[in-house]
Amino acid sequence: MKPKLLHVLGGGQWQVPTVRLAKALGHRVLVSDMYRDRPAYALADQHEVVDITDCEATLQLATRCRIDGIICDTTDVGVATAAFVAERLGLPGIGYETARNFTDKGRMRRLTDAAGLAVPRYHLLSSPAGLAAAAAEVSFPLIVKPVDNQSGKGVSRLSAADGLDAAYRLARSCSRSGEVLVESCVEGQEIIVDGFVVAGKARILGIAHKLPFADSPTVSSRILYRGALPEAEFERIRATVCATLSALGLLDGIFHAEFMLDGEHIVPIDIAARGGGVMIYTHVLPHVSGVNANRAMIGRALGEAVRIDPLPMPRAATIEFFSMPRGTIAEIGGVDSAAAVPGVAAVHLNLQAGDEVGPLEHKDRRPGYVVTLGDTATEVIAIARRAIALLRVRMAGAGEFTSID
């Protein structure tokens, strides 16, 4: 029997583990991406340059190649396309309308609000005409963001009306649909919940607490999976997660959600029908939960039965983001030594020699991070600190290396 053909949307570094795993499982792989030079192309059986946000062009490619399944596992921009193609070809998928619920924050707010969940006060704007009135009704501090982007791109947090017009223009420039969301800030502890839904039943694979950078409150400096939570806290979170997934219509597949713990309320902030970035999907969840969610996603896309059985006592992991001085990077040292520290799963650099270190405008502007795995929160934080202490950077114009924070 000819091996099944899995269509992977996106050919970047975050799709490389998915392509490798699918090949290791004995499947053929087709990769499509809008760019001509992508690392996953070299691993795939076939590749084509097609914009993964273009539903019709992707459908034509998938039809011509006679795919057996399609997946978009770590980027929001192709989630709706994968669902569209699967629906049109009668393949396993989450459904196009459901995908739009997870990739359009305006739809997300309306549906969770209608379901009776605690949501921020919000207004959706398609022009700047009602901006001042919307801000006055929502009240400061507030968030202005595009409805359909990711990684914090185009997001501004404002404590007063100064900069409101500029924040709207930034969000509008990052919004593919042209819609902008103005919503109240929800104060409290931000958490991430990762999991998998099978036949309408959600299983939690990990719960992490986020710590923001002091000078950039919308960008995380730490994502900490502490291990087991008190039962009452876990059940409160689980109930809100299930209600949110039900409101958005996810019956099967992976999810990566962000909530704010605000006193008695657990407020949905954002939720994606894909795996979490910064190696959560590929490195953290298998350790924390004992479940290879990537393998489950591949199996589900190809019509295989999926079982999700997380460990009864989750393990710990952390993703620690580091900073560098402003300016141009001349050289980074100590990466191999940091990666060799026991318990370090990965050291990742977003910036290289020649790149400019600027303000933390969004998540992708962080210079890099260390992923560490262990049994307790104290252990994984200590491992991360040891690894980061070994990293050094030399900025252009400087004669010596300096420590990375």
Q: How does this model look, in words?
A:
Helix content is 30%, strand content 30%. With 405 residues, the protein is an alpha+beta fold. It folds into 4 domains: 87 residues, Rossmann fold (3-Layer(aba) Sandwich); 64 residues, ATP-grasp fold, A domain (Dna Ligase, domain 1, 2-Layer Sandwich); 98 residues, ATP-grasp fold, B domain (D-amino Acid Aminotransferase, Chain A, domain 1, 2-Layer Sandwich), CATH 3.30.470.20; 87 residues, D-amino Acid Aminotransferase, Chain A, domain 1. The strands form 4 sheets. Strands 13-12-9-10-11-14-18-16 form an 8-stranded antiparallel beta sheet, sandwiched between helices. Strand 12 and strand 13 form a beta hairpin. The protein is globular, with a radius of gyration of 21 Å. The N and C termini lie far apart (54 Å). The model has no long low-confidence stretch (mean pLDDT 94). Its EC number is 6.3.2.4. It comes from Candidatus Accumulibacter adjunctus. Pfam families: ATP-grasp_4, LAL_C2. This is D-alanine--D-alanine ligase. Keywords: ATP-binding, Ligase, Nucleotide-binding.
